[in-house]
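Reviewer has doubts. Consider these C-alpha cells.
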Amino acid sequence: MSPAFGKCYDPSGARYGIPTFPWQLAPDGLATRRQLRARGLRPGGQPIQAQIMRANRRAGGTQVAFLYRLDQAKPVRPMTAAKSAALAAAMLARRTCPACRTDAGYCIPTSLGLCVTCAYPDEQRAA
C-alpha cells in the first residue's frame, strides 16, 4: 500500500472523524454533490456520511470531497419565475460596462472592470 493511499484510507473514521476513502474508491450508495446534481438530486439537509480524499503531490496538500447517501437525497427544486428573473438580471449586470453602459455581449473581465473597447480605447481607434 502506498503512503498516499494509506493516508486516505480510514473506513472506521478513527483518524478524520468520518469514514474516509481514497479517490474513486467510494462505496456504493454514496455520491458527491456533483454526482447528485447530475442525477437531478440534492443532499436535502442530510449530514455528511463520508469523504473521499486525494493527495496532491504537486502542492503537498490534499483534496477532499464529501459524500452523501443516495437513498436520502431529495429531488432538485424546480426553477421559479422569480429565480429565473433574478439570474437573468445578475447576468445582465455582469455583461454591462460601467463606463459606456452598453451590453458587451460577454461577461466583463474583473481584471479590467470595463469592456475591452473602453479599457483599451487607443487600440480600438487604430484598428
Observations:
- The beta strands are 20-22, 30-31, 41-42, 50-55, 62-69, 74-75.
- The mean pLDDT is 89.
